[in-house]
Amino acid sequence: MASIEEVVLLYLLRRHNKNNRNRRTRRWGVRPLNTTRIQDGEFVSLVLPMRQLDEEKHFEYFRMTAETFDHLLDRVVPFIQHPACHRAPVSATERLSATLRYLSTGMSQTALAASYKLGTATVSKIIKEVCLALWAGLEEEVKCPEGAQWEAIRDGFWEKWNYPNCVGAIDGKHVRIKAPANSGSSFFNYKGYFSFVLMAACDAQYRFTFVDIGAFGKESDAGVFSRSKFGAELLQGRLPPLPCAPLPGTEVLTPHVFVADEAFPQKINLMRPYPGSQQLSHDQKVYNYRHSRARRIIENSFGILAARWRIMGKAMECSEDTAEVVTKACIALHNFLAKGDQDLPEENRYIPQEWQIGMVHLESGDG
User: Fold this and answer.
1) Same domain, 149 and 127
2) Fewest beta carbons less than 10 Å away: which of 41, 270, 303, 338?
3) 4 part of a folded domain
4) What is the pLDDT of residues 126-137, one digit of tens each?
C-alpha cells in the first residue's frame, strides 16, 4: 500500500505534467512578421514621413499639429523614456504615436499591434503606460479652479451663455466597456450595455474642471454625483468658494451655482430646471431656456471629447482599470487641445465656430 508521501508525490507529478501540456509553448522571442518593424512598420513607413511632409495628414492621424505633438511629447517623455535594453527599443515618440492612434480611432489593440509590427501584449502595456503619463504630464490641464479662475468661469457663462453667477455645468456620461469578470450586473446600465460613469463639470469654454471616473454603470447620475469627492463638497456647501454676488443690472445678491439636469437635486448652489412644460409660467419658461443654454455646454463637451477621441464612443476591449486610465488620458488631452482649437483652420476645429462665439448677449428678460 502506497504511503501518504508517495500519493502526494504522484499527485504533484501528474499536476506538473498536466500544466506542461496546457502551457502554450513560446515559439519565438519576436514574431517573424515583426522583425522588420524598424524598416517597414507603420511608425517608420508612414508616421515619420508624414510628420515631415504632410501637416494635413498629420492632423487627421493624431488630431493635432506636428508642433502640438512635439509639445505634448515634451510633457510626457519624462514618464515614458526607457533606457535602451533591446536591439530595437520602442522610442518615446513611437509609444506616444501608437497610443494617440489608438485613442483617436478606437481601433483594436490587435490591429494596432499588426500595423506597428509590435506584439499585442507590448501594445497593451504601452497604451496603459502612456495614458498614465498623459494624465501625469498634463496634470495642470485638469485641476480644480483656484482664486480668480472661478471668477473667469463665472464671467464666461454670463458673457457667452447669458447665465449669471454660474461657475460650471455638470452631467454624467456612460463609458462603454466589455463586461468585467465576476461583476454581475453592477456595470450593466439602463441603456442595455456595460459601462462605468464619467461624472464631470466644465467651464464655459468646454474644458473639464472636475472629473470622477469609475462608478458602476447601473448607478444613477445623482447617486454617482453625491458619492464623488467633488459632489460631496458641493452638497456640503464648500463649492464654489465664492461669496454671493449681485445679479447683472441689480443689487440682488445671489449665490454662485452649478447647473445640472432634472436628475440632480436642487440646492442653493446647484440649479436644475423647472419640472414639466405645460403648466410653467412665462418667467419659468424663460429661466428653463437660459438654464438649458448653460447646461448643454457639458453635453457638448462630452460630444467634442468623443468626436476627437473615438475610443470614447466605442466599447473598450480592455480591463476596467485600463479603461479608466484611457478615459483620464482623453480628458487631459481634451483640455490640452481645447485652448488652441479656435486658432486652427475651420476644417480642423472640433469646437464649431458658433459654439466658440456663444449667444448674442441679451439684457432683457425675454431670452
Assistant:
1) no
2) 303
3) no
4) 999 999 999 999
